[in-house]
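Morning!

As promised:
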Amino acid sequence: MHARVVDFLKGLQDRICSALEDADGAARFREDSWHRPGGGGGRTRVIADGAVFEKGGVNFSEVFGDFPPEFAKTLPGEGTKFTATGVSLVIHPKSPLVPTVHANFRYLTHGSKSWFGGGADLTPCYPFEEDVVHFHKTWKRACTRHAAVADYAKMKKDCDEYFFLKHRNEARGVGGIFFDYAVATEAMFEFVKDAADAFVESYLPIVERRKSLVYTAEQRFFQEVRRGRYVEFNLVYDRGTLFGLKTDGRTESILMSLPPVVRYLYDFKPKPDSREAALTEYWLKPRDWAEE
Amino acid sequence: MHARVVDFLKGLQDRICSALEDADGAARFREDSWHRPGGGGGRTRVIADGAVFEKGGVNFSEVFGDFPPEFAKTLPGEGTKFTATGVSLVIHPKSPLVPTVHANFRYLTHGSKSWFGGGADLTPCYPFEEDVVHFHKTWKRACTRHAAVADYAKMKKDCDEYFFLKHRNEARGVGGIFFDYAVATEAMFEFVKDAADAFVESYLPIVERRKSLVYTAEQRFFQEVRRGRYVEFNLVYDRGTLFGLKTDGRTESILMSLPPVVRYLYDFKPKPDSREAALTEYWLKPRDWAEE
């Protein structure tokens, strides 16, 4: 299955980059190919200073070797030998009215076990209900097409729980789906392919609706403050980021997920009853958006 | 000893804030008093948008209660009851020619054990040899005045090792001193008092020499990129930050250490043979600066 997954993921990277370039209309992805000393490598593709996308990365990697023994024990399978391949993307638009998005689809083998993991989640600063509902409905439909292996309700709840900043008691965004250790059957591979190819449909209609809206300097300021939360989550909690940094992953590929310009203010609080206050008080509380 | 340490630290916070306000000449510290649900509280003092200091905090705290049992086992002493009091400061100047500085002096008790910890370290973007040497000499002199309890060579080496970003293979700054688990004898308290009161002398002469120098937009840009490294260190490695965030510390007081405006670029590399390239290639390599 490994070779078929790799073929699919490389094509996925091509299709997503192409769709994002079309939506941007100005900037193109640059590609850096890299090799991992312990085995394998990847194709990092980064877009910067576009008309729509301020910074984004769509990375493919295929690595193999030995897990650190202590880490290996925490995973399904036996021994230390592993393979891992995946596509991981984070897109930070320039406009505070266009949401940031993250998605990841990966396949791992460890001893006799193999599994898929991944998902997608949306992080708006100024959410529009239509967008949030569209994003969730896209993922729900993908799950429903593969109901024997994809439990939407569980994947939605797991996403809300994973992308959560405990020290802020605050969700990172409005959620999506998250799954891990999904036994690598053919049926699960079919789901992963279908879901991964739903990414473009989940996100680009939102970009098209919002990319030309005029925004204010105050909204841009608020976006830069909110991006600080994104950094806090990725550096303090995100398992993939921390595992990569602590096991000699390619730092620049891992940290391409960090937003381009960020502000950290002491004790910033939005004005009461503002759209900015509504973000944390209303939008970042988990709801069954697909049913709205 | 606890009460005498608290008295000293509160006075220290006053003296340092007053000296920093004089150096800034425009902004004043604002104070937030807070109470910790588990016991104790603190006085957070923050300066922002000054003539010299873009963002800075000088925090006093005095907390007590029970450590999480697993954490308690990793420390000297028995049981879970603890007290901790300290002053912690981070100052981010506006000018890229004025270095960022961090210092911390703390006193802990746990069961039958009590100890001091702390230190100070400097993080310039555009170092001047005179400044780096002055900073290190100040700390070496403080240690030498208390040679029976303060081993400068060890504290200097421990600082270089602690403030290190493994995933970058890069020091955070040019170092200083770092000590921990220093048994709380009267002689050690005398050292801590002397060292803590040397902070103003270690840093403000550097500020005075550099605060009026003209800098370029390119230098400011480089500072914003370098500040990204400061965030990476504090959120991925700093024990105090992670302990605070994961044990219901006051998030805004802990994260006041993050720089005000930060840029994360993909794979940024300074021009060869530039002052920017010299930062990592020359200045961030540990040296015995006090002997230069």
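Chain A is about 40% helix and 25% strand.

Hope this helps with the figure draft.
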